[in-house]
Write a structure and sequence with these properties.
Blueprint: H1 3-24, H2 39-58, H3 61-68, H4 78-91, H5 93-99, H6 111-131, H7 134-139, E1 141-144, E2 148-151, H8 152-173
Antiparallel strand pairs: 1-2
Length: 174
Amino acid sequence: MNKKDIVEILEQKHQNLFDWLLSSGDENWEKGPVDRWTSGQHVLHLFDSMVLLNKALKYPKFLLRYKFGTSNRPSRTYDEVAKRYEERLSENQERARNFNRDLKKPALKERKRLIDSLQIQNKKLQYKTSKLKDKHLDTLLLPHPLMGKMTLREIIMWTAHHTDHHVEILKKDY
């Protein structure tokens, strides 16, 4: 998947989320199914995840190389990243549950600000992706808590899939 395709899939997956949030109204923002996240918690989780990635992409490339190393294999495709994530998630259900067990529930008054902030983070990631050199996308690594080290290309594609994953959960839960 080239940079243009990655930017497009980031836009598409996030637009699906924003469309769902717009159509779902306010009632699910603070109240969710028993032992499941509210829609506000899903948005907060996605926002936190994207803030971390955008922050990491600000670091100088030499620092990322020094801290996390370089890849010794080609980047996986979007479908391979998505499949691997779903496999890792199913193998590590308890770990995944514990990862964000204490995620706060954003208040309804925070809804617009949080959604707007997620949109801004998405646009930042799209811009950064378009400016990265292909060499850096395929050689520099970042750690993922469930997936291990991933190339920049993979972790950016994972971000699109991660958003889609949460949209599917929201659709199923509500």
